[in-house]
Prior knowledge:
- The chain is an alpha/beta fold.
- It is built from 20 helices and eight strands.
Amino acid sequence: MVPLAERIRPHSLDELVGQPHLFTPGKPMRRIIESGKIPNMIFYGPSGIGKTTVARMIAEQSDMTLHKLNGTTANVNDIRDILQESGSLFSTDGILLYLDEIQYLNKKQQQSLLEYIENGKVTLIASTTENPYFAVFNAIISRSTVFEFKPVTKEQIRPAIQRAFRFLEEEQKCSIHYDDEAVDYIAAGCGGDVRKAINTVELSVLAAQKTDDGLFIQKESVQALTQRSNMRYDKNGDQHYDILSALHKSIRGSDENAALHYGAMLMEAGDLLPLCRRLLCIASEDVGLAYPMAIPIVKAAVDTALQLGWPEARLPLANAIILLATAPKSNSAHDAINAAIEDVKAGMSGDFPRALQNVHFDGADAAVKGQHYLYPHDFPNHWVRQQYMPDTLLNRIYYQFGDNRAEQAAKEYWSKIKK
């Protein structure tokens, strides 16, 4: 049976759910579509939010011959067969090629399109769930306009859910009873995926309680059908890195509640190792010398999580997330080592001061013989003034003390001694 989402697919831009930044009257993309002069385009965004629907609308409004391919199954011969048609009588108005999941085509397959989309014989509309600037060949990107489709909000999805219920009422010729709470559950549980929401409506009707008065959608049934369905996650896709980035930035911004939210998303996806690595990185990069004990504490929490496994691993990881988010912050070590590395890469590493070299024989041409190294432990406060930097970097400063209590205490201590 054809899925409900396919049976009620919109046929005009006004029926489309979501994407107001693209299709509100007056927006550039809407004007382009209404002009009838279609450029090469790449639609980028998660699945189930209208990319394929819009491509079909464009094809229906144009006089071009429509061909569809999916990157998961297409090969070079499939592409070549379509391209060869571009010079035939059957394609006098041009060919519109809708290529879904273009990221699955290899570089050679994508390159086979270049000549034809450049001379205008083929108009390409490609869609991808991955960042096209990483997943699509640069030459294709340069000849196309990229439009980003965004997840649909709960408020935008509600009318689509209600329309789906009405459609099924007419199709099945019986009353379907549901309340606003059921609609809210479906809208919240689809993770911004309209197709998923509509398919959940269909499942809810199939699982509905039948009475003489029609079908009744029960709250428990909707909850069971929507649990975990809002997890839009791909361990190798953009969403994976977006969540890790959101976690990192929330901890850096000392928002423990947001950090716990993104941490919970990673935990629900079972992404243990990336979460552990990111927490270890944050301890050194963003807390650092403001609270140096954060590093061994987080390391202990990570080791405990790895030994426990799911679901208990969530407990030490939650401790680590809250500790890092609420700890004082300093990126002084991060900035210092980056500045030092920049000098090394720039070739600014001069000769070692003689006092720092390993003990060895002075050559006959040495102006000053002997190492003359001063052993700091032989002096008061275990410190003595001598040159450590190469001559080329003398007086270069990489590390700036942070404005937190721990680093300011260290600064004050050494200021007194080094006077």
